[in-house]
Amino acid sequence: MLCTIPGIGERTAQNVIAEIGLDMSVFPSAQHLASWAGQCPGNDQSAGKRRSGKTRKGSKWLNIALKEAAMAATSTTDSYLQTLYRRKKAQGGHNKAIGAVKHSIICAIWHMLTTGEIYRDLGPDHFTARNPERQTRRLVDQLQRLGHTVTLQTTSTAGLVAA
Q1: Spatial distance between the Cα atoms of 91 and 110, rounded to a whole number of angstroms
Q2: CA neighbor of 98 nearest in space, from 18, 33, 36, 41
C-alpha cells in the first residue's frame, strides 16, 4: 500500500513500517507523527525573536528511508511531490525542499495507515488550480517585465486569456 507513494519502493516501505509500526492510534494526527519522526521545523522563540528553526532528532533509520524516498520522488514526472520540491527549492534551497517533501510523505503515510486508502496524487498543477488568480498575476507581471503590454479578457470556456 505504501508503495503507491512516488519514491517509495518495497524496501523503503518495509523500513518505514519497521520504524513507526502499523498502529496509528498512538499518533492523534499526522502532525504528531511528523513531529515524533523529527520531520517538522523547530520553533525557538524568545522575546519575539525567532532563533533556530532546526528540526529535532528523530529515528536515524526512518530519516534515511524518508530521505531516499524524497530524493526519488523529486525525479518522478508529473507528481505533486516533484512540484512541491521545485517550489520549496526556489524559496529555501535543496535541503529545506527535501525536508518539506519528507514531511509530506510522512503525513501521507499516516493518512494511508489510518484510513486504509491508497495514495492519491494531487497532481503537478495542484498549486495552480488552488489559486489560478495568483498564477495569472505572476504571468502578467512576467510579461510586463519583458516589455509587453497585456490586456486580459475573460472567455466563457477557458477562464482568463491574454490578448
Answers
A1: 27
A2: 41
- Cα 156 to chain centroid distance, Å, stands at 33
As a whole number of angstroms, the distance between CA 12 and CA 19 comes to: 11
Distance CA 35, CA 21 (A): 16
Q: 23 and 70 in contact (C-beta within 8 Å)? A: no
Tell me the per-residue pLDDT of 67-105, one tens digit each, with 9 for 90 and over. 999 999 999 888 899 999 999 999 889 999 999 999 999
CA distance 72 to 16: 15
**Each residue of 138-157: pLDDT tens digit?**
889 999 999 998 888 887 65
| Cell, residue 52 | 533556530
**Could you give the percent of the chain with pLDDT greater than 90?**
46
CA dist 161 and 152 (Å) reads: 6
